Amino acid sequence: MNRDKGVTGPAGFRAAGVAAGIKANGALDFTLVVNDGPNNAAAGVFTTNKVKAAPVLWSQQVLKERKLKAVVLNSGGANACTGPEGFQDTHATAEKVAEVLECGAIEVAVCSTGLIGERLPMDKVLSGVDTAKASLDNTVEAGLNAATGVMTTDTRPKQSWKAHEQGWSIGGFVKGAGMLAPNMATMLSVITTDADVDKDTLDAALRKATSNTFDRLDVDGGTSTNDTVLVLASGASGIKPAGEDFEKLLTEVSADLVKQLQGDAEGVTKEISITVTGAATEAEAVHIGRIVAEDNLVKTALFGSDPNWGRIAMALGRAQAQIDPDQLSIVINGIRVMDKGTRGEDRSNADLSGRDIDIIIELALGQGAATILTTDLSHDYVEENSAYSS
Amino acid sequence: MNRDKGVTGPAGFRAAGVAAGIKANGALDFTLVVNDGPNNAAAGVFTTNKVKAAPVLWSQQVLKERKLKAVVLNSGGANACTGPEGFQDTHATAEKVAEVLECGAIEVAVCSTGLIGERLPMDKVLSGVDTAKASLDNTVEAGLNAATGVMTTDTRPKQSWKAHEQGWSIGGFVKGAGMLAPNMATMLSVITTDADVDKDTLDAALRKATSNTFDRLDVDGGTSTNDTVLVLASGASGIKPAGEDFEKLLTEVSADLVKQLQGDAEGVTKEISITVTGAATEAEAVHIGRIVAEDNLVKTALFGSDPNWGRIAMALGRAQAQIDPDQLSIVINGIRVMDKGTRGEDRSNADLSGRDIDIIIELALGQGAATILTTDLSHDYVEENSAYSS
Lengths: 390, 390
What we know:
The structure is a homodimer.
Chain A lengths: L12 E6 L11 E6 L5 E6 L7 H10 L6 E5 L8 H19 L6 E5 L9 H14 L4 H9 L9 E6 L5 E7 L12 E6 L5 H13 L16 E6 L9 H21 L7 E9 L2 H12 L2 H8 L5 H8 L12 E4 L2 E5 L2 E2 L12 E7 L5 E8 L3 H9 L3
Parallel strand pairs in A: 4-5, 8-9, 10-14
Antiparallel strand pairs in A: 1-2, 2-4, 3-9, 6-7, 7-8, 10-15, 11-12, 11-14, 12-13
Helix pairs in contact in A: 1-2, 2-3, 5-6
């Protein structure tokens, strides 16, 4: 994977990231990604939160056509819980982009991230569209600026790009550091491809890829009001890949973006992988992995480098899933600390001093398996989230 | 409420709390409560966790008879995930108590709390029974020692006692500071009464009282492997109260014990009450209250005294419940910060600098209402739970 390129890696795309003045500190806060075609197929997945931000409501409507000319994104404000006025702001933003790009507003998706409950400074947003339009380019720099313009508590821009040997490629950026349990966090991602993929194939591939990547990261259980992943296909390579080839590469790029989200999560000191095997179903494996990933007693123990498997057993015992405590085994960094319902090897043999922690939970009931990525609960997490209004 | 008396407040009960040597530091770690009758009705509610400790499995069996002579409790070890051997340890403890009290093991409930996954030092447990038997008394001091013997990370013993004007009373103790979301945390409570209450009335009253008190405290979502609340009725007052009078006083004493759990929770700096009104059903109100209570972004914001209502809206939007975002209002310490789906009064008017925070979530859909008690997520919470193996 190449992390130096992103949305402008594939042919047929231009992007820009500019300082529109939404953020008081003058940082980049406004991003525009444009698909120059020849195709304009697109697909999107959105937050499952019942409280949805105005840009999510707008983009869900727009994506019904599965055609996009452009995506406009801002940091510095989520435009969530802002009522009908907030929705009008989103609409006006799309209209302005449509005007400068000479397309329809229905071809423009909108994404926002930042504090919930505040209106956006629309004068700055609208002039930002003009500035961004003037900066559009297909360069590596333009892609990096686009990835930077959406950052909130992220410490670094996060991009991924990979080419297929057939001559087409997939690239994208992602932002997100807290409120991060994408089911479909404010987690925003725009992915581009120059493959010639029709809209139905694109939609199916995106749903499959996100369900196995974005949907399996759970930092803090906080599915946001604004979570969005969009994929845009320009067809500029002129190559029509096989469906499974496209889905495979899209999953790889998505997984790499998710790995970067995990590594840059708020207060992270441990990158934790929780694999559940032998569950009754895959859905139960995912549910059990999430229950453990979200448990504060597990997360604080791991921050303390303590292989406290009893807390893992406690946490998963709360799952709405089939569990036989007498069949349950837990392996932490290769040490089988719990074996068939009771104490296994001495837990002090499990060395958790490093950054990576690998937990395997064996239920020994069925064939269901899944891996959930999460992070620990550290002092820095508490500090960032008690001091920063997001 | 009188917090100086507990299980020995009602007539017909003796108790003891001794140092059996289970804890290395020599603190009190072993408690015995004995019902001297004339009656021996009892009822219990237990953890809903699928991974249940040996003493829970034992006590659930014993309580089927709804008759108890005694309850024996230890701190310093949960006896959970200890396999058949752990269950035999519990059984042997009950047998030893039955021997010294000259009753049947079937009349002895057992409770344990401490680290999960370690066997108990049975020589110390068994000699502890003898020491405790020799210390049994009906004094205030004996009750206080009993309440102290079950403490783990608790900073203080927690008792409550109240007399009914008719001449009978209810008293009890509780322990618990983390892994605390009793649905039925290691949260242990023994409640006594000298009312003449039959076992069916006692059972019904306990279920009703706990569902409205213990089950509505949610510090960290951590329903433990060992949660237990037991109530024992001696009938020693000779007075048979009306069912509703008994249930009302039992609920009051339970609520006072729960308030003390909240106030002594690990790392607590804020005592937070979340009231949900206008839900479709009471069950949905409870579910929504719990989702908000368990949300780390909400908990860290409140630690920072930040009335960040957007995080509350985000958290509850994840609930599996009927929600209309446009009807949603949020009141924090008297300030209506969110009104019918959008920003209300300036949130800076909500002063959260004190210890008590009162949140009201108005759904405006139906008649369902519930209040959940929780605490904030502080640096001390992270410190205690990353440094202490519980």
